[in-house]
Amino acid sequence: MLTFDRLITGPVIHLVYWAGLGVIVIAAFSVVGAAIGVALREGSWAAVLLAIPVLVGGLLVVGAMGLIWRAFCEFYVAIFRIGDDLAALRRSAEAPAEPAAPAPYQTFGTNR
Predict the structure, then answer these.
(1) How many Å apart are CA 65 and CA 41, to the nearest integer?
(2) 3-class DSSP assignment, residue 82
(3) I want to staple 73 with a disulfide (CB 3.0 to 4.6 A). Which of 17, 18, 41, 52 is the partner?
């Protein structure tokens, strides 16, 4: 925990993703509630007709937020996986090399 030999951010990013997704879902409920609240408070057909595009636009923005949040978290996971791959390459490069097996003897030009 104190030496940073093993990074814990990889497993933690899944919790951060779900927490952020929960916030985005709460924002979606807020958009729906605000659109319905404005339509009911005004009580006219004009307010209802105005609430529909606000609702659709708000849900599109919330959907875009979800996609951007997912892309951000995937980028973060990819960076840590690249780091893990580089560490594995470094370990394999520092390992003592095994002697190569001799190539089998082949004769060319004979029809056997």
Answers:
(1) 28
(2) helix
(3) 17
Q: What is the mean pLDDT of each run of 10 residues along the chain (112 residues)?
A: 71 91 96 89 83 91 96 91 86 74 64 56
Question: Hey, how many other C-beta atoms are within 10 angstroms of the C-beta on 27?
Answer: 15
What is the pLDDT at residue 72? 94
Q: How far is CA 50 from CA 28, 34, 103, in A?
A: 18, 12, 78
pTM: 0.69
Within 10 A of 65 (CB to CB), how many other CB atoms are there? 16
Secondary structure letter of residue 109 according to DSSP: S
